[in-house]
Design brief:
The complex is a heterodimer of chains A (about 375) and B (about 90).
Chain A lengths: L9 H22 L3 E7 H9 L2 H4 L5 E8 L7 H12 L3 E5 L13 H6 L4 E3 L3 H10 L4 E8 L4 H14 L4 E7 L2 H10 L7 E4 L1 H7 L5 H5 L5 E3 L4 H17 L4 E3 L11 H10 E3 L2 E4 L3 E4 L3 E3 L8 H4 L15 H5 L31 H16 L8
Parallel strand pairs in A: 1-2, 1-7, 3-4, 3-5, 5-6, 7-8, 8-9
Antiparallel strand pairs in A: 10-13, 11-12
Chain B lengths: L4 E10 L4 E6 L2 E6 L17 E5 L2 E6 L1 H13 L2 H13 L3
Antiparallel strand pairs in B: 1-2, 1-4, 2-3, 4-5
The chains are: A alpha/beta (about 375), B alpha+beta (about 90).
Chain lengths: ~375, ~90
């Protein structure tokens, strides 16, 4: 049975909000702080703000912590500089998803590099980058492969197609990241206060439910894999709170209409064939996390930009004024960052969380900046 | 990048590479169907199915009613626009 209409029913939303409040309030009261629930995925952060879910729930009872699941938000500056170094090579056409164009590196963004003459092309799909390679056989096309497991199969399958077709001027600058080691790093953080997780729907569509078991079994936290519509998120939140209330920790799946228990078998097979884990990978705001990124296997060296070209592999510290890391771990709210809304805005982002509409800071800036100001006790502005 | 958009598979363009044509609100483009073709089935078996498309790849089959309602909602909120524009740009070979 499907609940298609019910997922958009405002009465159901109101009923769920009431139920969540009733279940969570005694827990929050007992501990003297709101329950901290991390939505791992940036798509969920966007839904929470876009539909005003945050304002439906009492701040004393539930606090959303906006997780690391926004691929462009966790891209370190040095990596952007590497992209620009590649793009400046006159032999190279550098192709990328639009989301990555505005992420600031230490020398500006890819968009600015394009304005200065670098051949940067925005594409919708890695397949389009492959088409650019076919159309420009005398140039090298490098596709900036980024994203979690949701986009990993698409770049893996594109490379497999390029190999089948014998395309020799196409390669990936592989910056894919994996969510599980990152969640583990967050759970191992000594400052951690998070009570439960809303699991990423479309990453799970690829990897399935099972990789999350350690969260329930080892770290004793509930996790519910959630869909992207407002009622999906409310229902998932209710499922997390219900587990907390009943003293249970399990991996539950609210998004069964898209997420199969074992994930997507052909997608995982393609990923497995093309990529292997790196020993460690650098994240913006979170530092280096073991086994959190993938690289291309040696047999795909001909399609690996890291092996084909000399990449500076720059390490650039995050700007000192930015507190992206503390926001990503849920230690501070975006508004508490010193540069939020002043030196760092969606038009002129300093930190990556301000770049994408899935980034926590950008979502706060667009949807919650004034509401937050109004309730801040020291602002002197009546609510 | 991660939200995806529902699309209807309307034809197969390159069976060897498992590529087919999808339609999203009248915009048509080629997508890869490898992740939604069941074992032992041909790409043609996908024609008429609704799928969730991420960056040019069908990643999951979806129910037709669900697809229609999701599309309606995305359109009402203006969230389908960016995805459609990107699809449209990608519909033309470079």
């Amino acid at each position: 049975m499907r609940f298609t209409d019910e997922f958009r029913d405002p009465d159901k939303a109101r009923a769920l909000v009431k139920e969540i409040d009733a279940l969570a309030r005694p827990l929050a009261r007992a501990r003297g702080t709101p329950l901290q629930i991390m939505e791992v995925c940036g798509g969920h952060t966007h839904t929470i703000f876009r539909y005003g879910l945050k304002s439906l729930l009492s701040e004393d009872v539930i606090e959303f912590v906006h997780g690391p699941g926004c691929p462009v938000c966790v891209l370190p500056m040095g990596r952007v500089d590497d992209c620009i170094a590649l793009a400046r090579d006159p032999a190279i056409i550098f192709a990328t998803f639009g989301d990555a164009m505005r992420v600031p590196g230490s020398q500006g963004s890819l968009l600015q590099a394009k304005a200065r003459g670098a051949d940067v092309r925005m594409v919708y799909s890695p397949l389009d980058a492959l088409a650019v390679a076919r159309a420009n056989p005398q140039r090298e096309v490098v596709f900036f492969a980024l994203g979690f497991e949701t986009t990993m199969p698409s770049t893996a399958l594109t490379v497999l197609q390029a190999r089948r077709e014998g395309v020799q001027n196409f390669s990936l600058f592989c910056n894919h990241i994996t969510i599980i080691p990152t969640l583990k790093a967050i759970l191992d953080s000594p400052e951690l206060r998070i009570d439960g997780f809303l699991g990423p729907g479309h990453v799970s569509m690829v990897i399935g439910n099972r990789p999350y078991r350690f969260i329930a079994e080892r770290y004793r936290r509930p996790i519910v894999i959630a869909g992207f519509e407002p009622l999906d998120l409310l229902q998932s939140l209710w499922m997390v709170i219900k587990q907390l209330r009943e003293g249970r920790c399990a991996v539950e799946n609210q998004y069964t209409r898209i997420v199969p228990e074992l994930g997507n078998v052909p997608a995982l097979a393609a990923v497995q064939e093309v990529f292997e884990l790196r020993e460690f990978f650098e994240w913006r705001g979170l530092g280096s996390i073991d086994h959190s990124g993938v690289r291309m296997r040696a047999e795909f060296a001909a399609f690996d930009a890291e092996r084909k070209f000399s990449i500076p592999n720059l390490k650039i510290a995050d700007p000192a004024s930015c507190q992206c890391g503390a926001v990503l771990k849920g230690l501070i709210k975006p508004r508490q960052c010193k540069v939020f809304g002043s030196d760092c805005t969606p038009e002129r982002p300093l930190g990556a969380l301000m770049v994408s509409s899935e980034g926590a800071c950008s979502a706060y800036y667009q949807y919650a900046r004034f509401a937050e100001q109004a309730v801040e006790p020291d602002s002197g502005v009546p609510a | 990048m991660c939200l995806g958009i529902p699309a209807l598979v309307v034809g197969i363009t390159d069976a060897r590479n498992k590529l087919g044509l999808v339609d999203v609100c009248g915009v048509r483009r080629q997508v890869n169907l490898a992740c939604v073709i069941d074992a032992g089935q041909t790409p043609e078996s996908c024609i008429g199915d609704w799928v969730l498309v991420h960056v040019g790849f069908a990643m999951s089959r979806i129910d037709a009613t669900e697809a229609r309602l999701t599309l309606e909602l995305l359109q009402q909120l203006g969230e389908a626009q960016a995805e459609l524009e990107a699809l449209r740009a990608g519909a033309v070979e470079h």
